[in-house]
Design a protein that fits this description.
The protein is an alpha+beta fold. It has 9 helices and 19 strands. It is about 25% helix and about 30% strand. Helix 1 crosses helix 2, helix 6 packs across helix 7 and helix 8 runs parallel beside helix 9. It starts with a strand and ends in a 9-residue tail after the last strand.
């Protein structure tokens, strides 16, 4: 479609090098790395039949890109599944900003994919600049992202030193290997993680929760823009629990993004090991309808259960989760997926692994 001097088109593989070049303004300056990241996120996603994205062309060159991250969710009961889209990686060349490309590309996504198998948008990585635009286009906030965290003594002391003499104590490499019942690895054990998820008790089967299977675990952690550390709890010769952390480059912050257990207290034992070995100065986790097992573990390990939604080290600040039906003109019925009202945050189980930015 034409939009002034621009042409808005669906993504095609031939445009990937130009998109990777454009995304230097958002991702990295390394174009081959950007290409690899794009292919992982949009072309290799096991739940996406096709990449969901549009581009803005100016005189034949890509000057804008709007993508959507496809995720599969269980909706309402264990048998029902649905595909959701997360708006992601919006980037407009600096010379072409403030010309309405954000809005027109997003509207093009709605028009192009609104009648397909996707049911709704869920925005988990919006920022303060993009949120007003989404609200104008019909998204609604259902909750603020909040965090709970645990600071080590070293983190507290470092904060004091940084303020007074601008010196940081943050250090400490992660040691990989087997340490008794705990294994620390750079690699996901997809088969074991899948097995644990299938064995887990689902405390509530009438809400929205991320669908995770073997294909998911084999694919999800190939993201070359993030550093993951995998912790496994071994019992009777088998893995019976895992915790996945997204680590900052210097291991200052460990974000608990995914976890599971098929034996009692496996998650707590893993986190206790992490804390005892002082591998991170700050541990944090999204606090959005946390399950009983992880909540119990966090309390026992003296995590600060207060809301850290404000901007603090290790958090992103108080930003909302945004929801919208995919239909261009939506009705009341479109807010329901398999009889689940997606406007009610109590119906969602959301961990950081659900976010495209994780």
């Amino acid at each position: 479609m034409k939009y002034g001097d621009y042409e808005i088109k669906r993504y095609k593989p031939k445009f990937v090098p130009q998109i990777a070049n454009l995304e230097r303004h958002l991702w990295s300056k390394d174009i081959p790395r950007n290409i690899s990241y794009f292919r992982w996120k949009y072309e290799e996603n096991p739940f996406a039949k096709e990449p969901v994205g549009v581009i803005a062309l100016y005189k034949g060159r890509v000057v804008g890109f709007r993508g959507c991250f496809v995720s599969k969710w269980k909706a309402g009961d264990n048998e029902s599944q649905t595909l959701l889209l997360s708006p992601a990686d919006i980037c407009v060349h600096p010379d072409h900003r403030r010309r309405g490309l954000f809005t027109i590309m997003t509207e093009s996504i709605i028009a192009e994919f609104g009648d397909r198998e996707y049911n709704a948008f869920i925005n988990l990585s919006s920022n303060k600049l993009s949120i007003p635009g989404y609200l104008k286009m019909g998204w609604i906030p259902v909750a603020d992202k909040s965090f709970i965290r645990r600071d080590s003594l070293k983190a507290v002391l470092s904060s004091i030193f940084m303020k007074k003499i601008k010196f940081s104590l943050y250090r400490g490499p992660v040691e990989y290997g087997r340490f008794g019942d705990i294994e620390v690895s750079r690699n996901p054990k997809a088969d074991e993680m899948d097995s644990i998820v299938r064995k887990q008790k689902i405390l509530s089967d009438n809400g929205m929760r991320l669908f995770k299977n073997l294909d998911f675990f084999r694919w999800r952690f190939q993201n070359n823009r993030r550093k993951y550390v995998f912790y496994y709890y071994w019992r009777n010769g088998a893995v019976s629990g895992y915790v996945t952390l997204r680590a900052s480059g210097d291991n200052e912050i460990g974000r608990i993004i995914d976890y599971g257990e098929s034996s009692d207290n496996a998650i707590e034992k893993i986190l206790r090991f992490i804390i005892r070995n002082r591998q991170y100065d700050i541990l944090n986790i999204w606090n959005i309808n946390l399950g009983e097992e992880i909540t119990r573990a966090l309390r026992n390990l003296r995590f600060d259960m207060r809301d850290f939604g404000k901007r603090t080290k290790g958090s992103e600040g108080r930003l909302p989760i945004l929801i919208r039906p995919l239909k261009k003109e939506y009705r009341e019925a479109n807010w329901f997926i398999n009889e689940v009202d997606i406007r009610n945050i109590a119906n969602w189980k959301i961990d950081e692994i659900c976010s495209d930015a994780c």
